[in-house]
Every structure is written in C-alpha cells, then in structure tokens.
Design a protein that fits this description.
Aspartate Aminotransferase, domain 1; 36% helix; 13 strands; alpha/beta; Aspartate Aminotransferase, domain 2; 472 residues; single chain; 4-stranded antiparallel β-sheet
C-alpha cells in the first residue's frame, strides 16, 4: 500500500473513480490533467457536485457580505441571461436597457443632480468600480495640476487604516501613494479632522466608507466633507470625496434615508456599491456613478464599433455577463422601495437582537451592534480599550483560548465565522464578525447563538451544555 504524507499527496496520487449504477458510468477521471476521453454530462455533473458537497453551506457563512439566497424566479432569469455579454449592446439591446434603468434608479436614491441622465456604469463588483473611480480622481487631479503648473509626479490618495484592500490594490496598480490615516484608539472609523490634516496639493481625493468591512460602521461622510470645506476656506485646496459604499450604498437609502452621505454633499464626486451585497443579487455585479460628466474624464471612455454600432464603454473588463444586471433589475422591480426597506430593516432587527444576546454572555462584549450595517462584531469582555491592553481582572485578561479557537469550534456546527485582528492601529484587539443578510432568519440566528455557547464550552473545558448556551 502506498503511504501518503499529506492531503496534497493523496490528491496527486489518486484518480476520481465515480461509481454510479448506470451503464457506462464507471470511469476514471484524472484530477490534474485532461482525460483522453469524454464522459456523458450526468457523470461529469455528479463528479463535480460530489466534490462541492465538501464546501461549507453558503447560508451558514456569516463571514461574507455577499448574497447567498435569491428567489427561484431571479435565479431563473440569471441562468437565462448568463450567455449575454453586456458590452455587445447592439446584440443585446434590452439587457443594455435594463442596465440603464438600474443606473436611473440608483442615481435617484443616491440623490444625483440629474438622475434621469446619470453618469456611470455597471461593473463586475465594487473592486472594479473602485478602480474606475480612483482612475477618475487621478485623471482630474492631474489635469488640475497641469493647469496650475504644478508637478504630477506624486499623486496621493487619503484612506483610513480600516479601508478595504481593493484601495491598496488601486494605489499599487496605478502608481498612487496611499496615505493611510490612523484610527484613533477606542474608535473604529476615521475622524474628519484627521482626514483634513493629511491632505496637501498632491492629494487626488479622500475615500470615505459607508459600511466598514471590519465592523459595518458608517464613516461620517458629512463630517469629512465639512472638515474639507474648512480646509478649502483656509488654504484654497479643494479635495474631492469618493464614497466607497460597497455595502451601505444599497442599504442606507432604505433604512437610513435621513443620513446625508451621498450626492447631496457637493464634495462627493463619485460613489460605488456592490449589487451582490445589500443589492440582494448573487456575485458579481457592482455600480459606480459620478456626480456629473466633468467628474468622469472623457479620455477614460472608449468607443467600440466592431461589435456593431458605436457605443461608449468604461470598464476594466471587456467581457461582462449580463446576468447580474438582469437580476438587479428584477430585485428593483420585485421589491420596490418598501420591499427593500422591509428586507433590510428585518436584517438590522435580527442583528441587533443577536448583539443583545451576545453582549449578555459573560465572555463577550459587543463593539458593533447592527446600528449601521446589520453586522455584529464582538471581542472578549474587557479587550476593547484605548490602551490596547485588556482591563485588569476582565475575562479578556484571564481567558485561556482565542477567538480563533471559538471560530474553529463553530465549524463543528457547520458555521463559517471570521475571527481576525481589527484594522491597523487597533490590531491589538481580535474580534469576531457576523454579517446578517437577507434570508438569515430568526431561527438561524437562534441556532447560531446556541452553537456559540457550545463552542465556548468546548474551548474553556466546561463542555457543551445545550440547555444553557449562555452563561449570564
């Protein structure tokens, strides 16, 4: 018998041998090279489907902001439009029309100056949208520098230490210096005064986040805008804002309509959002809009005529499936404003009830309770301090295991739970984050809380106690 030293050795050494009862279904299929012969579609399907059973269940993955449930009618529309390349607007004019309608709808609830003629496009997701918005900031800054006779050698983008990694990608790919503003001890979002203090003539713009990846908190976009207004009044330096609303852009307009963060602020020049997060669509579709045509430099737009017709395009991906756009339009038609409000408010209600339950446990304290995005983030009780050291005598000071241990234990119940250090400048504090999404029901929330209690019992050695999951 061969001896395999690792799972990798096992995979390299064995072929897949699906044994099905149908005639002709007993075949050998190599894993890492192409087979010499074809197999029938059902056999190929079952070979792959059987492997995918080893993946976690998407709806029990509380790590992701991505949508994990859609109605069958939406799934059907996505399947029926999966073969359409959105860039080919002549061949698929109605799919292109649905994209335009989605832009009109989004521009309306983002309070664009001209919602009937929005400047924007769909994208594969928020990462592509951020790249396009960042490019527009750099191009516009470069034009201003040239007009003023100043250097264009050192463009800088002001971001918080809590910024999503796609902005560091943008800065590296497009040769922009990322000026990372520290998060103050005891806080989780940017302070407006710190943002203004970091700006100078080389600043292409400021990124404000509507819904932090770390804890779901909204950045004070209006406060940042006000601080930059004061900076301009003192120095004459005008710095634009891009709002990274990947998660909050299709959430806040429905449950926090009074919150001023969007194009109502003149300094906000562009906004992005992910349709596959709180836009309630499967990955991947995103959106980016600019305040007006002048904020999106024309030389970033290409005209395509070799697919038939002559159409402008601004994207990093030439090929782009139409299915996400179709599903996004379905959700807008299906739910309407009141439906989106109801779905998102339900998610927030569940998140806040979970936060209360977790905060009542003797082991944990909550640092995000679902008041912004429906996200619950918590740490060991006594760990959330301005000094970075646990409070004396607290659970965090004496605990003999980590939140990673808790997250690993949760997997025994099928839950995928992220545990990680908080952002730079507050990485002394480890947290667990739970993202509540559409179709995360109260029953699932209750099952999560029960499993959390059991996981702690397994970690601290007291054992599982299904009857008393919370030690108050």
């Amino acid at each position: 018998m061969p001896r395999y030293n690792s799972p990798r050795d096992l995979q390299e050494g064995l072929d897949v041998r699906p044994q099905f009862s149908r005639d002709g279904a007993v075949v050998e299929i190599p894993r890492r090279r192409m087979s010499e012969h074809s197999v029938d579609p059902q056999t190929a399907y079952h070979v792959i489907a059987d492997e995918l059973m080893l993946d976690g269940h998407a709806r029990l993955n509380v790590a992701t902001f991505g949508t994990t449930w859609m109605e069958p009618e939406a799934e059907r529309l996505m399947a029926e439009s999966a073969d359409k390349n959105l860039v080919d607007r002549d061949e698929y004019p109605q799919t292109a029309q649905l994209e335009d309608r989605c832009l009109d709808i989004i521009a309306d609830f983002w309070n664009a100056p001209e919602p009937d003629d929005p400047i924007g496009c769909s994208t594969i997701g928020s990462s592509e949208a951020c790249m396009l918005a960042g490019m527009a900031l750099k191009w516009r800054w470069r034009d201003r520098q040239r007009e003023a006779g100043r250097s264009t050698e050192r463009p800088k983008l002001i971001v918080g230490a809590n910024v999503q990694v796609c902005w560091h990608k943008f800065c590296r790919y497009w040769d922009v210096e990322a000026v990372e503003v520290p998060i103050r001890k005891g806080e989780t979002t940017l302070h407006p005064d710190d943002v203004a203090a970091a700006c100078d003539d080389d600043t292409i713009g400021v990124v404000a986040i509507l819904g932090s990846t770390f804890d779901g908190a909204y950045e004070d976009v209006a406060g940042i805008s006000k601080a930059l207004d004061a900076l301009e009044a003192r120095t004459g330096l005008s710095v634009p804002i891009h709002v990274d609303a990947a998660s909050g852009g299709l959430f806040a307009p429905f449950v926090d309509p009074e919150l001023v963060w969007d194009f109502r602020l003149e300094r906000v020049k562009s906004i992005n959002a992910s349709g596959h997060k709180y836009g309630l669509v499967y990955p991947g579709v995103g959106w980016v809009l600019w305040r007006e045509a002048a904020d999106r430099p024309e030389d970033l737009v290409f005209r395509v005529d070799y697919l038939g017709g002559d159409h402008p395009t601004m994207s990093l991906n030439f090929t782009k499936p139409g299915s996400g756009v179709v599903a996004q339009y379905y959700q807008f038609v299906r739910l309407g404003y009141e439906g989106f409000r109801r779905v998102h408010q339900h998610s927030r209600d569940i998140a806040q009830s979970m936060a209360l339950a977790i905060d009542s446990m003797e082991e944990f304290e909550v640092i995000a309770d679902g008041s912004d995005l429906p996200v619950v983030a918590f740490c060991f009780k006594g760990a959330n301090t301005k000094t970075g050291r646990p409070r004396k005598g607290s659970y965090a000071e004496k605990v003999g295991f980590t939140l990673d241990d808790v997250a690993s234990s949760m997997k025994q119940g099928g839950w995928s739970v992220p545990a990680y250090p908080f952002c730079a400048d507050r990485e002394d504090m480890e947290i667990i984050r739970v993202v509540v999404r559409n179709a995360f029901s109260r029953d699932l929330a209750e099952m999560f809380l029960l499993e959390l209690g059991r996981a702690v019992g397994r970690c601290d050695g007291t054992g599982e106690d299904p009857g008393r999951p919370f030690r108050h």
